[in-house]
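Propose amino acids for all 241 sites.
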């Protein structure tokens, strides 16, 4: 049986992370067309000064969209942070979670910011209702990204593909300024799945993006490459029986 990848390289690939060195490296990767991050990734990367970190990254990455997230839980403070982040650079998208930690909807704020001309990345979406509400909130506003956590949906034992396919069509119904993003990527094949669903964008960690070159490798070559790795590792480890 001949295995053929259906990947057409039509989807935008963004890198997701908060390690400055890695972000700058990925920004130079020809596959990468944008970047995203979030407070959890920043904490994991050891970021202590949120503003300084973001501005240091923006001082270098000026030609690709990059999303920075608000971290307030109160909507008034969330808006204040969003207005500040928006002023940092023209390539900035402000990430707004679909709700706060109390389960209160962010839709009124999203609509307000979008219609004020602020580019948004609405994040942490999991349901069809959330997707519909978000699209309705941004359809008359600035360019917006609708980030659905397809990978985490799959982690729950549910197939995200039907939802993502319908969501992609729904976003396109309301204009080119709304883009659907497949978030929480787990493996390289998710890129193919997201493209086949019609998603505009997929975010992926650097280790996944670095594997994209494997799309051009024949299965037989991958088999040989794997066996050679086993041989090299067993020899370097000095294994004996």
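Proposal:
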């Amino acid at each position: 049986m001949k295995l053929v990848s259906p990947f057409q390289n039509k989807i935008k690939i963004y890198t997701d992370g908060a390690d400055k060195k890695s972000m700058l490296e990925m920004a130079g990767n020809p596959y990468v067309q944008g970047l995203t991050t979030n407070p959890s990734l920043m904490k994991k990367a050891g970021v202590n000064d949120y503003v300084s970190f973001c501005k240091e990254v923006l001082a270098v990455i000026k030609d690709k969209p990059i999303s920075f997230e608000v971290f307030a839980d109160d909507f008034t403070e969330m808006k204040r942070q969003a207005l500040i982040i928006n002023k940092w650079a023209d390539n900035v998208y402000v990430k707004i979670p679909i709700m706060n930690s109390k389960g209160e909807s962010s839709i009124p704020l999203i609509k307000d910011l979008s219609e004020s001309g602020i580019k948004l990345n609405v994040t942490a979406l999991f349901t069809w209702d959330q997707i519909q509400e978000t699209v309705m909130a941004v359809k008359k506003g600035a360019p917006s990204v609708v980030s659905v956590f397809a990978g985490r949906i799959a982690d729950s034992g549910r197939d995200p593909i039907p939802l993502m396919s319908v969501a992609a069509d729904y976003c396109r119904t309301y204009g080119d300024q709304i883009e659907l993003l497949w978030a929480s990527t787990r493996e390289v094949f998710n890129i193919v799945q997201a493209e086949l669903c019609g998603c505009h964008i997929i975010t992926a960690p650097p280790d996944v993006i670095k594997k994209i070159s494997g799309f051009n490798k024949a299965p037989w070559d991958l088999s040989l490459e794997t066996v050679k790795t086993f041989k090299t590792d067993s020899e370097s480890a000095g294994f004996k029986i």
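The mean pLDDT is 95. The domain at 12-215 is CATH 3.20.20.70 (TIM Barrel).
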